[in-house]
Amino acid sequence: MDEILGISVASPRDTFSIRETTVRQALRPDPLPGIDYSFNPYVGCYHGCAFCYVPRLLQIDRAEWGTSVVVKRNAASVLAKETKRLRKGLVAISTATDPYQFVEGKYRITRHALEVLLRADWPVSVLSRSPLMLRDLDLFARFRSIEVGMSIPTLDDRARALLEPWAPPIEGRLRCLRALADAGLTTFVGFAPAYPPTAGWTPAQIAEAFASAGVRKIFSRVLDPRWGARDAMLARLAGSPLDRELRLISNVAYMNSFLDSLADACHACGVDFRRWRDESPRNEFTPQPATPLMALGAE
Ligand code: SF4
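That is the input. Now the predicted structure with iron/sulfur cluster docked in place:
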């Protein structure tokens, strides 16, 4: 582990490979309501979460996910040209990678993109699992329209260590949210895909933990078990003392009941709680101006 602003951040694995490339397009139109464009500084993600659906989107072998990253070296300069040419709109950073995975500490593609968007006065929504996000607090504070969030689908770090072992610990993410809120920023949590409660956490305790971290909104959905996500997760749970509890993650009836209780608890704490029900997304959940796809399960 490395320390960044007093927060532990996972160190690179020896076997992780990094490659650089150049791109011709930086912004992609995003189909999700409320988002105009997505900006992804990297292809691939060091965090390698078991449930990530990006391998499906990119049509790459799930076994390879989390073992490499491709750095889009010129993405910010391409973005600068696009902001002069395209209609202004909300940019979600990111939808298919984590913009603050450890390589960002060296390459600063996300930071340079934020500088571009700040100069152009475009609204942004940023979501990550990494407290490295705090490095860019100086930029966040200067945006006219910005939301910043952390993906925190469980408050039990043992569960996190099983399903997203290379992502930063939960405590660091909560501290990051607190620091962002203390700086006056609107913060949100991507509670997705929702983990079942473990270690005795109750919906009321989870809601209180987020409220006391200054969180204003939570977005959630249950796991989409298709395309190998469920099998990949079960493989990581095998032999763990949390196996029986965490397997409930793909029990839709159980998870819906838990999220109903969590929604009530959040509302009681003054935290907005929205969720995506896969069977009726349009009726159940109309995304607000900044609801990144990342908040629904993948950065
Ligand atoms: S869910 Fe997000 S942080 Fe996890 S591997 Fe996928 S892109 Fe990376």
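DSSP finds twelve helices and 13 strands in the chain.
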